[in-house]
Every structure is written in C-alpha cells, then in structure tokens.
Specification:
Number of strands of chain A: 20
Oligomer: heterodimer
CATH architecture of the largest domain in chain A: 2-Layer Sandwich
CATH topology of the largest domain in chain B: Rossmann fold
Number of helices of chain B: 13
Largest interface: A-B, 14 and 17 residues
Number of strands of chain B: 14
Distance between the termini of chain B: 45 Å
Order of helices and strands of chain A: EEEEEEEEHHHEEHEHHEEEEEHHEEEEH
Number of domains of chain B: 2
Helix content of chain A: 25-40%
CATH class of the largest domain in chain A: Alpha Beta
Strand order of the largest sheet of chain B: 3-2-4-5-7-6-12
Order of helices and strands of chain B: EHEHEHEHHEHEHEHEEEHEEHEHEHH
Distance between the termini of chain A: 56 Å
Radius of gyration of chain A: 28 Å
Strand content of chain B: 15-25%
Largest sheet of chain B: 7 strands, mixed
Structural class of chain A: alpha+beta
CATH topology of the largest domain in chain A: Chloramphenicol Acetyltransferase
CATH superfamily of the largest domain in chain A: Chloramphenicol acetyltransferase-like domain
Shape of chain A: globular
Number of domains of chain A: 3
Shape of chain B: globular
Helix content of chain B: 25-40%
C-alpha cells in the first residue's frame, strides 16, 4: 500500500487545501490520473496519482487544509506497479539524475519540458504515446517535432501537395523558385500557420481600429443580484433556448442607447452618423475566429425575442452559415467576455462604430450595502471602450452609469 | 590577401585609424617600444607624439584618457594586462560610465580602453584573468570581446568611432593562434550585435573569445557523432544582443553557455536569465553553464591551468550530456 502526500505547489508554499476528491475509495486509479483538486495560496491544480492501483482510504476530507507532505490518501498498488513512481507533482531533477541510467530506463518518460508541452498542446499530440529518445525515456523537442513534421508530410500528401515544393519549370526553360508554401513546417524553430480569410479579416479590422481610432476605456461594477434571480425564474419558461444573461444585457444596452444617441453612431471621416435604430452587434467566438453578427432594431425585441435571435445567430456562426446581411449596419457592439471567465477586459472598438461594451462574469462577492452592512451579492463588471474622437469621458461615463442603473433595476 | 592574425588585425586597425583621424592617440605602458604583445609595433615612429608611454599607473592611464576625451580627442588607452585594470575601476565605473547621464546627454566621452585578457598562456594568476563581468555589469560602459580577426578590425573601428566609453577586450591566447582570411569574412561593425556562426538543431552554445574557438572545435567534433550545434559568437558583452540570444536559444531549446571567467556572477548567469525570462516555453532542458571554477587565481602549472579552463573536450562532454537529456 502506498501513501500519496500533499505536494509542494510552489517554492514558498507550506500547505494546501483539498477542494474535491475526483476518485473515491475502491476506484481504479491509473498512473498520473487525477486524484483530487488542490488549492494553495499560489495555484490550484489537480493531483496526478504517482501510483497505479485502487484508491484505499481518503485521509483528508474535502475542504480541509493540511501541511505539505501530509498524507492525503492511500493507494493499493496494482500488481504490475510502475517500476519507479515519480514523486507527486513536480519531479526533482537532481534526485532523478542521481539515478544511474540503466538500459530501458523510463524514469523520466512523464517529465515534459516547457517546449514539449507547448508543442504538444498546440498540435494536439498525446505525449504518453511517444517513446522518448531523451535520458530516462524523456520525450524531447525533437521527438515531438519529428511527429509534427511527419503529420505535415502526411497531410500534404493527402492534399496532393508535393512534400518539398520543387522549382517550377516554365515553358521557356526558366526556373522560378517554389512559392513559399505555408502548409508544412518551414523550420525547426517555428511552425507556419496559414491565415484563414476570417483570421486575416479580423487582423485587418483590429489593426485598422487601433490605428485609426484613439480609444479610451472605463468600467463600472453593477450589482446584478436581481437579474440573477430573474433569469433563474424565467429560465424554465424558455423551452428549447438556453437562456443566458446575454439577452438581458443586450436588451438593457439597446434601451440605454435610446437616451445616449451619441454612442449609437458610426465615424465616417469628417462626420459622425447617429442612428435612430439600434443595430446591436453581438461578438461570437467560433472555431474559425471572432465574428460579430448584428441584431437589427434590437430595441424593438423583447428579451425572449432577443434570446431566440441571438441563439439563431450563434448557431449559424458556429456552422459558418452567417449571411452578409447578418454582418452589416451594426451601430454598437456587445461582447459577452464573461463567458470566457473574464472579470475585466479592454475591448477594441468595432470600427467604424464608436462604442463597444463587455459584460464580464457575474461573480458572488461580499459588498457593502445599505446601512453599512456587508452582504453576499452577485456583481458584474461592465467595461466600455469608445472612440475618443467621437465623444469624451463625461458622456461615456454617463452612459455607463445609466446602463448600471438599468441593470441593477432588473429583478 | 594573406591571412591575418588577431594581433595583426588590431595593429593594422590602429594604424588605419591613426592615419585617418588626427584626434586619435594611443596611451599605455611600453607602447612606444611596440607594447609587450607588439600591438603597437612600428606605430610610434610612424605617428610621432601620438603613441605615448605611460607610467605603471592604470588609474592615471584611464583618468588621462577621460580628460583627453573631454577635450575632444579620441584617446585609445591600453592596459597591458586586463588583470591590472581594476586600479582604474573607479575612473571607469564612477566617472567615465556616467558622463553623458550627468550632463543630460549634452556631453559624451569618446574613449576606448583596449586590454588583453584571458588564460591559456601559462601566465599565472596575474596575467590570465577574465575581468569582463565586473565591467559588463556597469551601465554606460560598452564591453566588446570579439573572436575572429575580421570582427576585431570592424569592431575596434566602431569602438573608436563610438561617442561613449568602450572596453575592448583582446584575448591574448588568440593573438597569434587565430588567423583568418579577412577579405570576404563576416565582419560585425555594430556594437551590441551577436552572430550565429554555426547552425545545428540539437543544442545552442554561447561563447566569446578563446572559448568561441574551442566551442567551434567541439561542435566540429560532435558533428561527426551526429550532434549538431548552433554556436553563437557573442561579440559584445554589454549590451547583450537579446534578440539573437533568444533566437538562437529557441532554435534548439537546449542551451550551453561557456566562459573561462569563474561561474558565479559571470556573463553566463545573465544570458541564462534572459533566456529563462523570455524563452521559457521554448526550453527543452535546464540551461547549462560551463565556466571556470569559483577560485580566485588561475593556476600557473600547466596541468592545473588545463583543469581550470574549459576547453573543447569539456565543452564536447557537456554538449553530449545536454544533447542526450
């Protein structure tokens, strides 16, 4: 029977808290399979099992904090236990090097260097499947690179692209150098990723916006406890549509813009065009990149209507079926950055629009409420980037304050 | 054109600059007689009054150099052995380094201090030391340490033309050992640039001076074993060429830094720091340093000096170990 202890997650860390057990007594545990989640003052991490077998006894219940090296659980090792269990968490190089390296030494097969991990993540490579050529069976950068190159060759062959582009002979016998084909790894030092049309367009738009429009940024915090309750109540009524905060937010933004037409505008060279309708751009992250389809006349739609409309746009965005008219004539943009877990972001204005707001993640926090009391409330940051050529901080701030009031009034 | 040694490259460049610029003069011990290494051989006769003997007082030599630079000259001082330069440490670090800052950039100190450094000549503890790290630490003093004759020519010219103080280090073991057909050879004329002199994808070696040549010899030997090294000639030690250092480190993810200076506080630590800080995600092995041991005197006895100094055998062994990591 082996004992798993609390690892030292960081040089100065002396204790850790077991957040959650991912395995229960009697469960089969593979080598490096996650046993539990641990939190320290520096990091949170899943604890990989240093042993193979079945989980025996849990010695530290969830939520309890213990010192580094304190026993966490026991594992009844499998008969074919791994020859040399690595210490939990990070292996100590000095200790491992002290071992003389006999033939078929695989003591370091699970130790991955930064570059190996980065390349593996980038190219979706299962490192455990590679027989490492480094000391102790360590997978080296060159091992991973060889696999990447091999895949690139296979992909190129499948696409009918010659693996190494040969010079192209012209009719008159002149030879032109091969074009720089960006489909195969061009160097050991980096991989060439051809830009998709979407990626290229995003890049152009972002560069243009930051180059042309001097942008300022501000943020407010809104207590959206009422909205959280409201959404929980209404969620059940929306069959077939997953009701997120976004439709409420979009609706609130659209109505706030009624009182602040100076933000519902586009910059056109030497004039500013204020729009009577609110055509609200919704930023959507897809596998192909960011797209911002537009909900026309968003102010005329109910929250339910917005929810269905946004749901439709999201579905078509992911399917790559947005139409040109979905993308046109936006007058203001909303970005639901909270969906990524962000609590503060600094968006880039969707030029030639002049304003973009982000709704950050709704988090529960202690806040000071009336009567100098402290209460647990659901709060959210709302950030605004705006084109400082078109308006100033006072107007932008007034808009954000009004938006905050409207959000806090939802219940 | 015939091959040129490091020493000839230095002498010919001094000759050329003395001829081209009347403000240039040389100052140092025994220079009129040609200097102990013969770097100024024949120059005092050719340029009367511009190749000056100095007393054995390094602080004065550097102090006079500072004064002359203040008055619009382009002085080039020689400290006979780098081991003795510390007598002028205060002049260099407390005065010369900061002049343009003290005058808010209104005045500059166009001065060069040349000095032979390094071991491998059985010079014993007072004629073999590496002193670069003390001065490379000092902002305001550029430290140049070339390896090949062509770079000695271009960088010595650049140092004399530079408006700020430059410490120009000449590895004494390479003076006659290293020869090069300089016409057409790569010649860096910008202070602050390093050069990748050899490309390989197994590991990257950083070195300067004699150790660069030992590293290239080791790389040649290793190529026969199937281990390919990228080798970087640092050329300038302050300011370090971060861009090239990072590019070369990223190319292989395995880094070996070689210097004959002692390990603790040597340039290797700074280079390792730059790489660890900016190329962490490209590393495939712990950064390795091969340096002189942390003992103050370089031994005189041949066997002990050999034990003290890194060489191609030790570099190849360290590189093999790193390649296998």
């Amino acid at each position: 029977m082996a004992t798993v202890t609390m690892p030292q997650l960081g040089e100065s860390v002396t204790e850790g808290t077991v957040l959650q057990w991912l395995k229960q007594p009697g469960d089969t545990v593979a080598l490096d399979e996650s046993l539990c989640e641990i939190e320290t003052e520096k990091v949170s991490a899943e604890l990989p099992s240093p042993f193979e077998g079945t989980l025996g006894e849990i010695l530290v219940p969830e939520g309890e904090t213990v010192d580094v090296d304190a026993p966490l659980c026991t594992i009844n090792e499998a008969a074919s236990a791994s020859p040399e269990p690595a210490p939990a968490a990070v292996a100590e190089p000095a200790a491992a090097e002290a071992e003389a390296a006999p033939a078929a030494d695989n003591s370091r097969s699970g130790v991955y260097s930064p570059v190996v991990q980065r390349l593996a993540a980038k190219h979706d490579i299962d490192l455990a499947a590679i027989a490492g050529s480094g000391r102790g069976g360590r997978v080296t950068r060159k091992d991973v690179q060889a696999l990447i190159d091999e895949r690139a060759r296979e992909a190129a062959a499948a696409d009918g692209i010659p693996p190494a582009a040969a010079p192209l002979p012209l009719p008159d016998g002149e030879v032109v150098p091969p074009p720089e084909v960006a489909t195969v790894a061009a160097s050991d030092a980096y991989d060439v990723v051809p830009l998709s049309p979407t990626r290229r367009k995003i890049g152009e738009n972002m560069a243009r916006s930051t180059a042309e429009a001097p942008q300022a940024w501000m943020m407010v915090e809104a207590d959206v406890s009422g909205l959280v309750d409201l959404r929980a109540r209404e969620r059940e009524r929306f069959a077939g549509v997953d009701l997120t905060y976004l439709p409420y937010f979009a609706s609130t933004v659209a109505h706030t813009l009624t009182d602040f037409p100076e933000l519902n505008a586009r910059w056109h060279g030497d004039e500013l065009r204020r729009y009577r309708r609110v055509n609200l751009g919704i930023a959507i992250a897809t596998e192909r990149g960011l797209v911002v389809p537009v909900v026309p006349n968003a102010r005329d739609l109910s929250v339910a209507g917005l929810a269905r409309r946004i749901d439709d746009l999201v579905a078509r965005a992911h399917a790559g079926k947005l139409r040109i008219e979905d993308m046109e004539a936006g007058t203001f943009t909303v970005n639901n950055t909270g969906a990524f877990g962000s609590i503060a972001s600094n968006p880039i204005v969707n030029h030639p629009q002049i304003g973009i707001v982000t709704m950050e993640r709704v988090v529960r926090r202690p806040v000071v409420v009336e009567g100098d009391a402290i209460a647990i409330r659901s709060v959210m940051n709302v950030a605004l980037s705006f084109d400082h050529r078109a308006l100033d901080g006072a107007e932008a701030g007034a808009f954000l304050a009004a938006l905050k009031d409207r959000l806090e009034a939802l219940s | 054109m015939a091959e040129v040694s490091v020493l000839e490259a230095v002498r010919e460049t001094l000759d050329e600059v003395l001829a081209a610029d009347e403000r240039v003069f040389l100052l140092g011990e025994d220079l009129e007689a040609g200097g102990v290494f013969r770097a100024t051989d024949g120059l005092s006769a050719k340029y009367p009054g511009r190749v000056l003997d100095a007393p054995l007082a390094e602080s004065s030599i550097i102090g006079i150099t500072i004064g002359a630079a203040h008055y619009g000259q382009r002085p080039v001082a020689e400290i006979q052995f780098a081991d003795f330069i510390h007598a002028g440490f205060d002049q260099l670090c407390s005065e010369a380094s900061r002049w343009s800052w003290r005058t808010r950039g209104e005045q500059y100190l166009p001065m060069v201090v040349r000095t032979p450094w390094g071991g491998g000549v059985h010079g014993g503890q007072h004629h073999s030391q590496s002193i670069e790290a003390y001065y490379a630490h000092m902002p305001g003093i550029k430290v140049v340490a070339p390896s090949f004759p062509a770079d000695y020519r271009s960088l010595l010219k650049a140092a004399i033309a530079d408006p700020n103080p430059v410490l120009f280090l000449e590895h004494k073991r390479t003076y006659r050992l290293i020869r090069q057909e300089v016409d057409g050879a790569p010649a860096e004329d910008r202070i602050g640039k390093s050069r990748i002199t050899r490309h390989g994808d197994d590991l990257t070696v950083f070195a300067y001076g004699l150790m660069l040549h030992e590293s290239l010899a080791a790389a040649e030997e290793l190529a026969g074993e199937g281990i390919e090294c990228t080798v970087v000639d640092l050329l300038t030690l302050n300011p370090l060429d971060r861009e090239t250092i990072l590019e070369a480190a990223r190319a292989t993810g395995k880094v070996l830094i070689v210097h004959e200076d002692t390990l603790t506080g040597g340039l290797g630590g700074e280079i390792a720091g730059i790489i660890a800080e900016h190329a962490f995600e490209d590393l495939d092995a712990p950064i390795r340093r091969l340096a002189g041991p942390d003992i103050p005197p370089i031994p005189f006895h041949e066997a002990m000096e050999t034990a003290f100094m890194p060489d191609r055998t030790k570099i190849a062994a360290a590189a093999r170990d790193l390649a296998a990591y």
